[in-house]
Design goal:
alpha/beta, 6-stranded parallel sheet, 26 helices
Length: 678
C-alpha cells in the first residue's frame, strides 16, 4: 500500500489519472487491454461528487486511445469507465443492483464509493465481488477511507443498535437467549438501577439536559465476565441473535465483529473499548435508550491488488493506515511542500460576540437575527468577487439556507443583488477533493465537529486500548476534514496579492493548526453582533453613526442619535432634531462628506439604507447616559473612547434646559451643538 501525502490542489489526483492511463495503455504489457482498475471515492451519487468527476476525467483520458489502440475484435467491446452504485441509488433510479456488476466487470475502470471497499475486498465468497476483482491490477482510493472500514452495530433503517433490553427480554421469554445475551440483560438491569453510573464515561448534552453513559473497557468486560462465571458463553448463539436483530441482508454484520468480541471477552487485560453498553438519563432522571454497542474495524486481507491512497493529511506518526490495514505493508511518499492556507477567523473568546449560529436552532426557525446577520456578512464578502463564495456548514443548515432562508438576505446590505449562483452551499463530510469551487471564497459557518461518541466509540475500532490515541486520532480527523474542505476554493493556487485570490473565512475559532498547513489571523466582521441581546446590532450602529457625526461636528449630540432612529427621542430631542436634520443634510452635500460620513451620505438619498447598511436594529431607551458612553468606549474606533457626556444649553427658543452632547470637552460639545443647529 502506497499513501501519497501531497497538499490539496497539488494535482495529485490529476497525476494519478495520468498514471492510470499509462498503466492501461502500456504497450509492453501482455495483458493489454485487460488490465483493470478500481477507483474509490467518498461518493458517486451526486452529480458533483468526486466519483462523477473521476468518471468524467478518466473517460476523457482513456476513451479516444482505447478505441484506437486497444480494441479486441474477438470479444465484446469494453466500456471505458463505469460507476458501481449503492442499493439506495439503484432503487431510486430503478437500476438492478446485481446487473451493475456485469457492466463493471467488462469496463477498464470501475468507480466505486468507499463504502463498497470492504465489500469488494473482504467478500471472497461472494461471486459478484470476486469477479469484480479479476484482472484488477491497481486500486486507487481518493481521500481517507476510514469511515468505510469501521463497522458500527446498527439496526435496519437506523443508526442505533437493535440490541436493547426489550429485544433481549423477548428472547429470554422465548427461551432462545444465549448466556451472553442473558448476561448483557442482567448488566442492563443493573445499569438502570444506577450501579454503573460512577464508572461509566459521561457525555453531557446541555441542550436537552441529558447525560449519555458509556460503560466500556475494563469496567464493562469485568462486569460481563462476572456474569458469565460458571457457564459457557455460547458465542455462536450470540452471533445468531445479532443476525436476528439486524434482519436486513444489506446490513450484514462482518465476521470481524464476532471474532473481536470473543477476543476482547477472553482477553486477560480487558481494556478494549470496542464494545459496551450505552444509556441516557433524561432531564427527569429516567434511564432511556439502553443498548449494547460495538464498533470494529473491517480487516482487509493482505492478498489484495496493490492499493494507492491519496490523502493530503495522512499522518505517519499516528499510524492510521497501519491500523486500518494491518495485513498490508504501508509506505508513505511525502515529497511535496505544503503552502499554508491563509485563514481568517472570527474569535469567539468573548461569548457575547461569538457569531456561530446553533444549527438546530436555525433548522427550527430560531436565531433568525443571527442567521440574517451571517447571510449579510457572507454577502458582503462575496460582493465584487466574481467567482462567488462557497458556504460550508452542516447538512441541516445548508438545506435550510437553500430551501427556507430568503435569498435576498445575502444581498441585504447593498444593491444590486448578488447573481443567483454567487453563493454555493456544501456540507461537511461531503465534498473532499471536488474541484468545482475553484476560485471561490470559502466561508465556514460551523466547525466540522463530530459527536463525542466518535472519539469514545467509533475510533475504538482503530485504537481499542488507549483513550489518548483515540483523542489524537479524533483531533487529526477534525483538522483533516476542516482543511480539506477549506481548500475547495484552491486558494493556494493563486499568488498572494492577486485580486482574484479567494479568501478563507471562519465564523469560529479553529484552535491550533500546524503552521505548515495553515496561517491563521483574526477576521473582523463588518458589523459586530452582540449575542444574547434582544437588539444585537444596535451597539454597532451607534458606533458607526456616532463616529461619522464626530467627524462632521467634533461632537455627537444625543438628539441626532435619537433623530436617526438609534434611541427613543424625548420631546425636546424631537424639537432639536427638527432643526438639526436640515443642517445635517446640507453638511452631507459637501465634497468631503462622502469620505468622512459614507453611511450618512447614503442615508441622505435613502433613509432606509441605515437598516440595510447597519443591520436591523430597534431604537433603545437612551435614558441612561452611562449605557451610551459604554457603547462608545467599546467601539473599534479609538476616537470614540475619549468622549464624555456634557450638558449643553439649548437655544432659548426651545426653553432653558440642557441637552446631552458626547465630546472631548465642554467647549467642543457646545461647538458641536452650535454647528448642528446653525
Amino acid at each position: 500500500m502506497l499513501v501519497i501525502v501531497a497538499p490539496p490542489g497539488s494535482k495529485k489526483s490529476g497525476a494519478m489519472y495520468q498514471t492510470v492511463q499509462d498503466i492501461i495503455l502500456d504497450r509492453n504489457s501482455r495483458l493489454l487491454p485487460r488490465t483493470r482498475l478500481l477507483w474509490a471515492t467518498h461518493g458517486t451519487k451526486d452529480e458533483k461528487s468526486l466519483g462523477q468527476e473521476a468518471k468524467g476525467r478518466l473517460h476523457r483520458l482513456l476513451d479516444p486511445k482505447l478505441n484506437l489502440f486497444a480494441r479486441d475484435l474477438f470479444e465484446k467491446p469494453w466500456e471505458v469507465v463505469t460507476v458501481l452504485h449503492g442499493w439506495d441509488y439503484c432503487e431510486e433510479k430503478n437500476i438492478n443492483y446485481h446487473e451493475q456488476f456485469d457492466g463493471a466487470r467488462s469496463s477498464v475502470v470501475t468507480v466505486i464509493s468507499q463504502a463498497h471497499l470492504p465489500l469488494v475486498l473482504s467478500n471472497p465468497s461472494d461471486p459478484r465481488f470476486k469477479k469484480l476483482l479479476e484482472d484488477v491490477g491497481l486500486i486507487v482510493v481518493d481521500e481517507d477511507p476510514v469511515g468505510s472500514l469501521i463497522y458500527t452495530l446498527k439496526g435496519p433503517n437506523t443508526t442505533a443498535s437493535p440490541v436493547t433490553p426489550e429485544f433481549l427480554e423477548v428472547r429470554e421469554a422465548a427461551g432462545t437467549a444465549s448466556n451472553i445475551e442473558l448476561a448483557l440483560l442482567r448488566l442492563m438491569r443493573r445499569a438502570q438501577g444506577g450501579e454503573f453510573d460512577d464508572v461509566a464515561e459521561q457525555v453531557v448534552n446541555g441542550r436537552w439536559k441529558t447525560v449519555l453513559f458509556s460503560l466500556t473497557a475494563r469496567s464493562f468486560w469485568t462486569a460481563l465476565s462476572d456474569e458469565l462465571i460458571g457457564v459457557s458463553p455460547g458465542f455462536s448463539l450470540f452471533g445468531e441473535a445479532i443476525e436476528n436483530a439486524i434482519t436486513d441482508a444489506r446490513s450484514a454484520v462482518p465476521g470481524d465483529f464476532y471474532r473481536l468480541f470473543e477476543e476482547d471477552l477472553l482477553s486477560p487485560e480487558k481494556t478494549s473499548a470496542r464494545f459496551g453498553l450505552t444509556w441516557i438519563r433524561n432531564r427527569q432522571g429516567n434511564v432511556v435508550q439502553m443498548r449494547f454497542r460495538g464498533d470494529v474495524l473491517r480487516v482487509i486481507p493482505g492478498d489484495t491488488p496493490p492499493i494507492v491512497i491519496l490523502d493530503a493529511y495522512a499522518s505517519q506518526e499516528l499510524q492510521q493506515y497501519e491500523r486500518m490495514f494491518p495485513n498490508h505493508r504501508v509506505r508513505y511518499i511525502a515529497e511535496w511542500p505544503f503552502t499554508p492556507l491563509d485563514i481568517e477567523y472570527a474569535d469567539d473568546e468573548d461569548d457575547e460576540e461569538a457569531i456561530e449560529v446553533d444549527r438546530k436552532n436555525m433548522a427550527n426557525g430560531k436565531q433568525v437575527k443571527l442567521r440574517n446577520y451571517l447571510m449579510a456578512e457572507t454577502g458582503e464578502l462575496t460582493r465584487g468577487h466574481a467567482a462567488g463564495t462557497l458556504v460550508l456548514s452542516y447538512s441541516e443548515v445548508t438545506d435550510f439556507l437553500a430551501e427556507k432562508a430568503p435569498a435576498q438576505r445575502w444581498s441585504w446590505r447593498f444593491e444590486p443583488p448578488l447573481p443567483d449562483d454567487a453563493i454555493k452551499l456544501r456540507w461537511w463530510f461531503s465534498g473532499r477533493g471536488i474541484n468545482a469551487f475553484d476560485g471561490r471564497h470559502v466561508v465556514a459557518w460551523h466547525a466540522p465537529r463530530r459527536p463525542k461518541t466518535y472519539e469514545l466509540h467509533t475510533l475504538a475500532a482503530l485504537a481499542p486500548y488507549c483513550p489518548e490515541e483515540r483523542k489524537q486520532l479524533n483531533a487529526h480527523a477534525f483538522r483533516s476534514e476542516l482543511l480539506q474542505m477549506l481548500h475547495r476554493g484552491r486558494q493556494t493556487n493563486y499568488p498572494p496579492g492577486e485580486t482574484i485570490r479567494p479568501r478563507v473565512v471562519l465564523f469560529f475559532n479553529p484552535g491550533d493548526l500546524p503552521k505548515e498547513w495553515a496561517s491563521c489571523r483574526k477576521f473582523t466582521p463588518r458589523l459586530k453582533f452582540k449575542r444574547y441581546s434582544k437588539n444585537p446590532l444596535h451597539e454597532a450602529a451607534v458606533q458607526v453613526l456616532a463616529g461619522e457625526l464626530l467627524e462632521l461636528y467634533g461632537g455627537v449630540p444625543h438628539a441626532c442619535l435619537a433623530g436617526l432612529g438609534l434611541y427613543v427621542p424625548k420631546p425636546q430631542e424631537r424639537a432639536l432634531w427638527s432643526l438639526a436634520e436640515p443642517n445635517l443634510r446640507r453638511a452631507l452635500t459637501t465634497p468631503m462628506a462622502s469620505s468622512v460620513a459614507p453611511v450618512l451620505t447614503e442615508w441622505l438619498v435613502n433613509p432606509a439604507v441605515l437598516q440595510h447598511r447597519l443591520g436591523e436594529y430597534s431604537p433603545a431607551d437612551g435614558t441612561h447616559t452611562q449605557l451610551v458612553v459604554e457603547i462608545l468606549r467599546a467601539a473599534d474606533c479609538s476616537h470614540l473612547h475619549t468622549l464624555k457626556k456634557f450638558d449643553v444649553p439649548v437655544p432659548s427658543r426651545l426653553g432653558t434646559s440642557t441637552t446631552r452632547v458626547y465630546a472631548r470637552s465642554q467647549v467642543e460639545a457646545e461647538k458641536a451643538l452650535s454647528q448642528v443647529l446653525k
